[in-house]
Design a protein that fits this description.
heterodimer; A: 280 residues; MetI-like fold; 2 domains; globular; disordered N terminus; B: mainly alpha; disordered C terminus; membrane (chain B); UgpAE/MalFG_permease (chain B); transport (chain B)
Chain lengths: 280, 319
């Protein structure tokens, strides 16, 4: 009886699995092609694009891993992503705290100003930002990218954090104040620890946004020493235009951090990215 | 005591506070708000204003603010430009393709993965994965795959007798670009739909089935209307994204061949940085901004209005 039910269920879901498999192949084939292609010779890549490599040529991967520029780009990307996240979250949390828990004249005006920032697409402001950063001497300086990314990250981060801060009951604050807590003490010791889920969401948004950003680093960094991974990948493709296998190896290695982060924090990442987007 | 308030509802209770405490309160507010405000004004608001301002000038981007005022000339030149007309056409093509193909595809897969099939958690993880990769990685990967002659796509499709130059042919470049966009983004929309679907109480679906509705009828008359807010948001996100589309095009084609895949952002970067006609490029960015703004206002006013009035439009209703 039970067994019969199970087979029937399997038979009806077979077409569903088939569709899922086809879509899965559509997603995975390019990535697997790149992964295997990195182990092939270029001649083999065009003769045998899908099969396993005849001989596993590890040279492409090891040469990328041995090159200083790859690790430098990795470091630059990491540093900029972490710094952007820290600046964005710190400044937003302070502002969101004021917006959520204080009443003062002009509050709604300031808050509306920040929310209007959601309507300012980054691409629109890129030329004046470039001119401004040049004037401030922040070209080829990580701070130019970090501060700009943080500034554009403020609106959404403030909105999400303010919403969370407001949901924390006022009694808690009263109790803390009676116990002699200063506003900053309440913020730092009680509110922030409670807001951990919201902080995780906004941090994911900031990290992924910074890690994948291309347009801003493209115009700010001209010296190779400042390049982030996306710039490095683009440049690498230009430099080794006909050496497809080598570019594939570089691509695969550049995917590792993002996919690794995804594997470790899948739930946070999916939740954060979709929640962040739908809230805009 | 009540100088710290709970939220907006407490605004109208200004308890008489001692002057010293009130001053302390203002110090707190100022210190907490100022850093974010300064950064925002300096790097978001000011550049936006400068972009609008400089669109009325002939300017190479050097020597302080522009001085060579030319009124609306940049805009008349832009609206007379063939490349700009093509940019708008490409925008329209991509928006129509996204709404008619990519989003229904995402919705269908969301419905599929909402079933209790074995391994659906794994399918979800795989389908969403391209979204976490950067557009640069995606672009470089597909520029190799879609390369003419020995590119992987040609070798794969030669089984069906299909071969093309994909990105190098003006007739196939837009469909190719759209397929790459779909590869990267359908998983994201699928996740939004899945979350929206999980907010629909199963009792409603079951009730429809008890009343004799078939699978398709249940979907058409119960699930789809209830997913309305979610679908409207995903359309919104897709359009706003397409208006600003840059990275992927820049990497895949650079806008070519002969402008046949160019977008507004690509045109703007070409003029702003390669030919240093910053005033003209600013005019393009202003059009991009106005397009997004007008679309957002109209869309929220007429399409999403019902959703914004209390219905839960976002993940877990946390708007």
């Amino acid at each position: 009886m039970n067994h019969g039910k199970a087979t029937r269920a399997r038979r009806t879901t077979l077409p569903l699995h088939l569709i899922a498999w086809i879509v899965g192949a559509f997603i995975l084939i390019p990535v697997v092609y790149a992964l295997l292609g990195g182990f092939k010779q270029n001649s083999e890549l065009s003769a045998n694009p899908f099969g396993l490599p005849e001989t596993w040529a590890t040279g492409n991967y090891t040469e990328v891993l041995a090159s200083g520029s790859f690790w430098l780009q990795m470091w630059n990307s990491t540093f900029i992503a972490v710094a952007t996240t820290v600046v964005t979250v710190a400044l937003s949390a302070l502002a969101a705290f004021v917006f959520a828990r204080f009443a003062f004249r002009g509050r709604e005006l300031y808050f509306t100003l920040f929310t209007a920032g959601l309507m300012f697409p980054f691409a629109v402001a890129i030329l004046p930002i470039f001119v401004l950063l040049r004037t401030l001497g922040l070209l080829d300086n990580p701070m130019g990218v970090i501060l700009t990314q943080a500034a554009f990250g403020l609106p959404l981060t403030i909105i999400i954090l303010r919403g969370f801060f407001r949901s924390i009951p006022g009694e808690l604050e009263e109790a803390a104040t009676i116990d002699g807590c200063t506003p900053f003490g309440f913020f730092w010791r009680i509110l922030l620890p409670m807001a951990r889920p919201a902080i995780a969401t906004v941090s994911v948004l900031a990290i992924v946004g910074s890690w994948n950003n291309f347009m801003l680093p493209l115009v700010v960094f001209s010296e190779e020493a400042s390049w982030t991974l996306p710039l490095g990948i683009q440049q690498f493709q230009g430099q080794y235009a006909s050496d497809t296998a080598r570019i594939l190896a570089y691509l695969v290695l550049a995917m590792v951090p993002a996919l690794g982060f995804y594997a470790v924090a899948e739930r946070h990442l999916v939740g954060g990215l979709t929640a962040g987007a739908t809230k805009g | 005591m009540t100088t710290l308030t709970r939220g907006p509802e407490a605004v109208r209770l200004p308890a008489p506070a001692p002057a010293a405490r009130r001053r302390g309160r203002w110090v707190t507010i100022t210190l907490f708000l100022l850093p974010a405000l300064v950064l925002f004004l300096l790097l978001v608001v000011a550049p936006m204003l400068v972009a609008v301002y400089s669109s009325a000038f002939k300017w190479n981007g050097f020597g302080g603010l522009p001085t060579d005022f030319i009124g609306l000339d940049n805009f008349t030149r832009l609206f007379g430009s063939e490349i700009f007309a093509q940019d708008l056409w490409h925008l329209l093509v991509l928006v129509v393709l996204s709404i008619c193909l990519q989003l229904p595809f995402s919705l269908a897969l969301a419905m599929l993965l909402n079933q209790r099939i074995r391994g659906r958690a794994l399918y979800r993880v795989v389908f969403f994965a391209p979204y976490v990769l950067s557009e640069v990685i995606t672009g470089v990967l597909f520029s190799l795959i879609l390369a003419p002659d020995a590119g992987m796509a040609n070798q794969l499709l030669s089984v069906f007798g299909i071969e093309s130059e994909w990105l190098a042919n003006p007739d196939t470049v837009m469909p190719s670009l759209f397929i790459v966009m779909t590869w990267k983004y359908f998983g994201f929309h699928m996740m939004i739909y899945l979350a929206g679907r999980q907010n629909i109480p199963n009792e409603l679906i079951e009730a429809a089935q008890i009343d004799g509705a078939t699978g398709w009828k249940t979907f058409r008359h119960v699930t789809l209307p209830l997913l309305g807010p979610t679908i409207r948001i995903s359309i919104f996100l897709s359009v706003i994204y397409t208006i600003q589309l840059f990275d992927l095009v820049w990497i895949l084609t650079g806008g070519g061949p002969s402008h046949s895949s160019e977008t507004m952002a690509v045109t703007m970067m070409e003029w702003g940085f390669k030919r240093t006609q910053v005033g003209y490029a600013s005019a393009i960015s202003v059009v991009m901004f106005v397009l997004s703004l007008v679309f957002a206002l109209i869309y929220q006013r007429f399409v999403m209005r019902r959703d914004l009035e209390g219905a839960s439009t976002s993940m877990g209703g946390r708007r």
